[in-house]
Design brief:
There is one protein chain. By secondary structure, the protein is an all-alpha fold. It has one domain (2-150, 169-177). It has six helices and no strands. α1 runs antiparallel to α2 (27-50). The chain is elongated, with a radius of gyration of 21 Å. The two termini are 40 Å apart.
């Protein structure tokens, strides 16, 4: 994703420079920026979930016991994240196929072909679906005591001027579940 961000920044900078310095502009460069940004967001969502960095209300979440956090995550993943990922992949594949088969092109003058952007939707949500299943299995395994909690030290975000909180011992974490 870092390379996509760098590419988007370079494309954006070069496009702005050419527009202001040489009075040259291209819709294709603008659309390429959008495609790159969409790729970063859609393809990066699964990694963000794997790193447990999705937005939460940290003030509340950090005060909950680990078991309660895992129960909330299991319910959220099972009832909300998995169904929406399945639905978007299910609807996104025909959306992409129609665009690819028809050779859909942007309505903007000098615009790009559309299907590369549209394939990012089912691809991104497919990756997010796979990661959501992994997270669901992982949290159930933690609650059953089969694996150590990989998120013990990742609750909330510490401010730069504060030292990070120390992780409790595995034994202490097991006690928190009882």
């Amino acid at each position: 994703m870092g390379w996509l961000v760098l590419t988007a920044v370079l494309v954006s900078s070069l496009n702005a420079a050419s527009r202001y310095l040489f009075n040259l502009s291209s819709n294709a460069w603008l659309e390429l920026q959008w495609y790159l940004f969409g790729a970063v967001v859609l393809l990066g969502a699964a990694y963000t979930l794997q790193q447990n960095e999705h937005i939460r209300i940290d003030i509340l979440n950090s005060r909950l016991r680990p078991r309660t956090r895992h129960i909330i995550d299991i319910i959220g993943h099972a009832l909300f994240l998995l169904p929406i990922c399945i639905l978007i992949v299910w609807l996104g594949v025909p959306f992409f196929i129609r665009s690819f088969v028809s050779g859909e092109i942007s309505a903007s003058a000098g615009g790009l072909i559309i299907w590369p952007a549209k394939i990012l939707i089912p691809a991104g949500f497919g990756l997010l679906l796979a990661q959501a299943l992994s997270e669901l299995v992982k949290r159930i395994a933690v609650m059953q005591g089969r694996i150590e909690d990989p998120y013990v030290a990742k609750v909330g975000h510490s401010a730069p001027d504060r030292p990070p909180a120390t992780a409790p011992s595995a034994e202490g974490d097991r006690e928190a579940y009882r």
